[in-house]
Design brief:
Elements (H helix, E strand, L loop, with lengths): L7 E3 H8 L3 H9 L5 E3 L5 E4 H24 L12 E4 L2 E4 L2 E2 H6 L4 H10 L17 H7 L6 H16 L6 H18 L6 H8 L4 H9 L8 H14 L6 H11 L4 H12 L7 H13 L6 H8 L17 H13 L1 H16 L7 H11 L6 H24 L19 H8 L3
Antiparallel strand pairs: 1-3, 2-3, 4-5, 5-6
Helix pairs in contact: 5-19, 7-8, 7-13, 8-9, 8-10, 8-19, 9-10, 10-11, 11-16, 11-19, 12-13, 12-19, 13-19, 14-18, 16-17, 16-18, 17-18, 18-19
């Protein structure tokens, strides 16, 4: 039977289509990737559909692969979500700008409910009491010198081991989440002592709970202080697929329970390139306090070729609106305590560096409120739990396992012909 040459290409055509040499073409044939049939004379013809398949594979490796890889580095969106949109004016929670919600005095509980259900209505502010935890046992388990974030991690692990909320869904899981978040806010007080936790657990509302758990002895628990903490929590509530949120979604896609997802998210947030950046900024401010002028720390660090944490964000080249809002709030609350932060920000701006980001504003606000060291990271963590719960719920609803592929760039192994693989796996 004569070969229908319309379904085949000459060697010159196949080489041109694939952008390869003739030696590579012959290698493809020997590996079984490209069918070849006799043509006129001593010439060979090559299956056009095989050529198309090889072209598609090449496009996937040189096109889609790098696109997917770059998407994991502040690149294009890779997951559909109805929760938060990143805009030049900051994150927009289900159509509401976070900065607007913060300036309007919306509570953290209201914003969490917005992220979870799309409504700002909330029945009652969340309360941690009764904790239902053996506080003395928790206190004995904390290492000396632990910071508030470690208190949250330890408390969450204890709650997860004790309760394990398997099978909860919908309103029942959200009710559990609200109680859990309020308890974690109170457990931050373990950095001081159990009595501080008990005092915090008696408060109504997450912001008031944190004011007691993280506040120093001199902190007046005024309405303005609680409102400032609420504003910070609202600004931290979600930021699309940041590292900790993506981690929560990956774990949620496996079917893990809520506590398991939150444990993973907290671990991701603790890193110095994420929520742990607040501790680096605290170190910056400690160094600045030992210099003649706070702004001298900018010249000193830049002179040593060091980065200055807390400035700039890839999504906000004109400045992070959340950082700007927090800096303004800190200046309104305690102008004198906010002054060193503003002087450093001004020095950075004068040297052509980026504007303050969320982390820098959080440390400035925590300092102005005279909260315990490490409090800024906890404000970040407790605030972000609202977004984590929303994304965990959404990921479960979408119902697919998050499992990206890796493009191998290591040492090449021996070439395997597909036909040989098939032969090796066929029954003998």
């Amino acid at each position: 039977m004569a070969t229908d040459t319309r379904d085949y290409l000459s060697a010159a055509q196949a080489v041109a289509e694939l952008g390869i040499t003739r030696a590579t073409l012959y290698a493809y044939v020997s590996r079984g990737w490209l069918r070849s049939v006799p043509g006129k004379g001593r010439r060979r013809l090559y299956a056009a559909d095989d050529v198309e398949k090889l072209k598609a594979r090449s496009r996937a490796r040189s096109g889609h692969g790098p696109v997917a890889g770059s998407a994991l580095r502040w690149g294009d969106p890779v997951i559909t979500s109805e929760i938060t949109e990143i805009t030049p004016a900051g994150p927009r929670y289900r159509g509401h700008l976070a900065t607007d919600l913060s300036s309007q005095g919306k509570s953290f509980e209201q914003v969490a409910t917005l992220l979870w259900n799309g409504t700002l209505a909330v029945d009652n502010p969340w309360q941690a009491h009764p904790l239902g935890l053996a506080l003395r046992r928790l206190d004995d388990g904390m290492r000396p010198g632990a910071d508030p974030l470690e208190c949250i991690q330890f408390g969450l692990a204890t709650i997860a081991a004790k309760i394990q909320p398997l099978g909860l869904a919908g309103a029942a899981e959200q009710a559990f989440a609200s109680q859990l978040i309020a308890r974690l806010a109170a457990v931050c007080g373990l950095v001081v002592d159990c009595e501080r936790v008990r005092d915090a657990a008696q408060q109504t509302g997450v912001a008031a709970t944190l004011a007691y758990a993280l506040g120093g002895a001199k902190l007046p628990r005024t309405r303005a202080v609680v409102a400032a903490i609420d504003a910070a929590l609202v600004l931290c509530a979600d930021h699309e697929l940041n590292t900790s949120t993506f981690t929560a979604r990956v774990v949620a896609s496996t079917g893990a329970d809520l506590c398991g997802c939150l444990v993973a998210a907290l671990a991701a947030l603790s890193g110095p390139q994420h929520g742990g950046a607040c501790r680096r900024i605290e170190g910056l401010m400690a160094e600045a306090s030992r210099l003649p002028q706070p702004a001298d720390v900018v010249a000193a660090r830049l002179g040593r070729g060091e980065q200055i944490p807390g400035f700039g964000h890839p999504f906000y080249p004109s400045g992070d609106p959340r950082g700007r809002a927090l800096m303004t709030l800190a200046q309104q609350l305690a102008p004198a305590r906010a002054r060193p932060f503003q002087e450093i920000a001004d020095a950075m701006n004068a040297s052509g560096r980026p504007l303050p980001a969320l982390d820098f504003g959080l440390v400035a606000l925590a300092s102005c409120l005279q909260l315990v060291p490490g409090a800024a990271t906890v404000l970040f963590a407790i605030g972000r739990t609202a977004g984590w719960v929303a994304h965990i719920t959404e990921q479960r609803r979408q119902g697919f396992l998050l499992r990206p592929r890796a493009r191998y760039t290591g040492k090449p192994g021996p070439q395997v012909v597909p036909s040989e693989v098939a032969a090796s796996t066929s029954p003998t």
